[in-house]
C-alpha cells in the first residue's frame, strides 16, 4: 500500500471536543481535509458553527453540537447525536483541560480537584461514552490532547502537570482496556500559539524567552498539533497505541520558567 493514502480518512466520521478554536478547530478542519465528516463540540455555538461551515466548504458533512464537557448527560447526548446524524463514529479527539499556574503553597484542594476534573475526567468520560459506537468501526482511534507539562518539571504547575501526567497514564490504561479494536494515543503539545498564549506572545520580551528556550526556536501553531493528531487518527498509525507523542519543539525543560521564589 502506498504511504500517502494511509493518512486519508475518507468515509470516516470524527468527533472533536473543544473544537471551537485553537487546537480543536485546527484539528477538526485537518481531519475534514483528510476526508472525514466531523462533529464539532464546544460550549460556544457561534464558534463551532463557524468551524462546521468551513468543514462543509471542504466538501464534508459537519454537525455543530453545543456541549458542556462538564455535563455528563450533555456529553452522552452529543456523542449519540453525532453518531446518529453522521451515521457512524470512527475517531474521537478530546481537546479539553487547562489550569492556571500558582505557587505550591497556594495550590489548595479545590484547585487540584478542578484541574483533575477538567484535564482527566472530562476526556475519559467522552471516550467512555463513545466506546459503544467506536466498537462498530473497523479503524477506531482515540486521540487525547495532553501537555508537555505532564512530563516536564517546573515551578507553579503542580495542579496542571499532575493532572496531565495522570491523563498520559490514563491513555496507556485505556489502550490496554480497549485493545485490539480501539487504539488510544495522545499528543503532548508545548507552547502553542492559541488564544491562551496570545497575551504572552504579544509581549516581545516574553515571546523571545519562549523562543530562546525552545530547541526549534519558535512557538508552535495549532496546525502543528493537528498534523500529529491526523497521524494518530489515521491508518498511518495503525500499529501505534498507548503512546504519548510530544509536539513541543524539542523541549527538555519548561520554556517559560515562572518567577516563583524558594519557600
UniProtKB/TrEMBL annotation:
<dbReference type="InterPro" id="IPR057326">
    <property type="entry name" value="KR_dom"/>
</dbReference>
<dbReference type="InterPro" id="IPR002347">
    <property type="entry name" value="SDR_fam"/>
</dbReference>
<feature type="domain" description="Ketoreductase">
    <location>
        <begin position="12"/>
        <end position="195"/>
    </location>
</feature>
<protein>
    <submittedName>
        <fullName>SDR family oxidoreductase</fullName>
    </submittedName>
</protein>
<dbReference type="InterPro" id="IPR036291">
    <property type="entry name" value="NAD(P)-bd_dom_sf"/>
</dbReference>
<keyword id="KW-0560">Oxidoreductase</keyword>
<comment type="similarity">
    <text>Belongs to the short-chain dehydrogenases/reductases (SDR) family.</text>
</comment>
<dbReference type="Pfam" id="PF13561">
    <property type="entry name" value="adh_short_C2"/>
</dbReference>
Amino acid at each position: 500500500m502506498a504511504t500517502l493514502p494511509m493518512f486519508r480518512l475518507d468515509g470516516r466520521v470524527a468527533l472533536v471536543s473543544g473544537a471551537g478554536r485553537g487546537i480543536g478547530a485546527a484539528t477538526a478542519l485537518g481531519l475534514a481535509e483528510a476526508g472525514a465528516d466531523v462533529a464539532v463540540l464546544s460550549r460556544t455555538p457561534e464558534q463551532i458553527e463557524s468551524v462546521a461551515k468551513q468543514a462543509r466548504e471542504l466538501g464534508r458533512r459537519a454537525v455543530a453540537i453545543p456541549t458542556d464537557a462538564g455535563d455528563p448527560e450533555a456529553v452522552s447526548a452529543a456523542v449519540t447525536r453525532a453518531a446518529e446524524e453522521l451515521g457512524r463514529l470512527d475517531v474521537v479527539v478530546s481537546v479539553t483541560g487547562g489550569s492556571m499556574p500558582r505557587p505550591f503553597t497556594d495550590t489548595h484542594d479545590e484547585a487540584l480537584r478542578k484541574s483533575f476534573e477538567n484535564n482527566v475526567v472530562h476526556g475519559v468520560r467522552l471516550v467512555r461514552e463513545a466506546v459503544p459506537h467506536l466498537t462498530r468501526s473497523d479503524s477506531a482511534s482515540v486521540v487525547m490532547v495532553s501537555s508537555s507539562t505532564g512530563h516536564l518539571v517546573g515551578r507553579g504547575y503542580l495542579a496542571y502537570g499532575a493532572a496531565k501526567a495522570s491523563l498520559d497514564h490514563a491513555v496507556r490504561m485505556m489502550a490496554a482496556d480497549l485493545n485490539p479494536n480501539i487504539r488510544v494515543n495522545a499528543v503532548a503539545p508545548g507552547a502553542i500559539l492559541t488564544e491562551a498564549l496570545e497575551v504572552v506572545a504579544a509581549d516581545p520580551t516574553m515571546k523571545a524567552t519562549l523562543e530562546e528556550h525552545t530547541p526549534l526556536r519558535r512557538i508552535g501553531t495549532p496546525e502543528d498539533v493537528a498534523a500529529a493528531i491526523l497521524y494518530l487518527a489515521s491508518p498511518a498509525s495503525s500499529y501505534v497505541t498507548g503512546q504519548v507523542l510530544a509536539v513541543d519543539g524539542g523541549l527538555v525543560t519548561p520554556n517559560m520558567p515562572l518567577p516563583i521564589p524558594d519557600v
